[in-house]
């Protein structure tokens, strides 16, 4: 069902269809136009341990912090995710081993913590994902090698841990959920593997899908599923590459795509697919740039885009594309603490620095996501 007019929606829940910039399909045949509204960041180290909220200028892509931002967070923030309604922000924090939940004021963008927050996780949570229905939340705990799973009340935002949680994995560097909400895909840097879980559509419980896909030496740290749900892309920090796998729609079994892995920059830490499904972008920490690829929608294969890699700030740790597929943002990890912004060429996938970039950040941006309005 298409979201109603004016609904705020995080990136990554539209179905793939090759369309002009700013257009994406949900169900049916009528195109829906999206416009970016906000960016949300999880910020570590100096000067603040916080979550930042920015408005996005829909014409220029410029970022401006909202009043009150940055907002304090318990522990050391490592990842951020927004629910499908755009009303609640979820921040995973290391050291404190917690998941904080905030309600977002639709007019001002200001955040207010839920009275029941924060919620306990296992050791060193490093990633958080919300299923497309908004009913389940999954947190990857890197030190504990587990996934903590919660149900969530869509109206109040309150969480409750799912029976049987946490679930054992092989390392749990990151977790992502496919657009249909069938599978949770977990990267395991310590065991150089990717684990797939089936999601129970009623309870949200996870069941491991065998075999776990292992490829020695990759150091899998981040994953992104394309909007069709047919392929997943994995950033391999130790091999300086990105891998592509097909996802069996019935079993969830992963199969390596021919030609994979594909060379990226040095120490790739984050990977994202644009919401239309044409392009893949990888943030490379040590080479300080963004690798860009054209995505074959049939095979899932990747082709480097002319001009790639594109220069970023010092040590980019995270990268995202806004819901309209107009802008790309990369959070830079070392001082000066900034966010790099780019205009996305819809014909080529090439990136051009936005006017005013880089934009000031309230801390080391470990994770960044965006919200858009469905017009």
Key attributes of the depicted protein:
about 375 residues; single chain; mainly beta; 36 strands; 7-stranded antiparallel sheet; 5-stranded antiparallel sheet; Methylamine Dehydrogenase, Chain H
Task: Describe the SSE topology.
Layout: E1 8-10, E2 23-24, E3 32-44, E4 50-56, E5 63-65, E6 71-72, E7 76-82, E8 88-94, E9 98-104, E10 111-113, E11 119-120, E12 125-130, E13 136-141, E14 146-152, E15 159-161, E16 167-168, E17 174-177, E18 183-188, E19 193-199, E20 206-214, E21 220-225, E22 231-236, E23 241-247, E24 254-256, E25 262-263, E26 268-273, E27 279-284, E28 289-295, E29 302-304, E30 310-311, E31 316-321, E32 327-332, E33 338-344, E34 351-353, E35 359-360, E36 364-374
Antiparallel strand pairs: 1-36, 2-3, 3-4, 3-36, 4-5, 4-6, 7-8, 8-9, 9-10, 9-11, 12-13, 13-14, 14-15, 14-16, 17-18, 18-19, 19-20, 21-22, 22-23, 23-24, 23-25, 26-27, 27-28, 28-29, 28-30, 31-32, 32-33, 33-34, 33-35
Instruction: Name the overall outline.
Output: globular
The proportion of strand residues reads over 45%
Low-confidence stretches: 1-29
Q: For the residues shown, what is the average pLDDT?
A: 88
Question: Based on helices, strands and strand pairing, what is the structural class?
Answer: mainly beta
How large, in whole angstroms, is the Cα Rg?
A: 18 Å
Q: How many strands, what sense, and barrel or not for the largest sheet?
A: 7 strands, antiparallel
* CATH architectural grouping: 7 Propeller
- Measured between the Cα atoms of the first and last residue, the distance is 15 Å
CATH superfamily: YVTN repeat-like/Quinoprotein amine dehydrogenase
Per DSSP, the total helix count is 0
- CATH topology: the name is Methylamine Dehydrogenase, Chain H
Which bin fits the share of residues in helices? under 10%
Count all strands and give the number. Answer: 36
CATH uppermost class: Mainly Beta
How many domains? The number is: 1
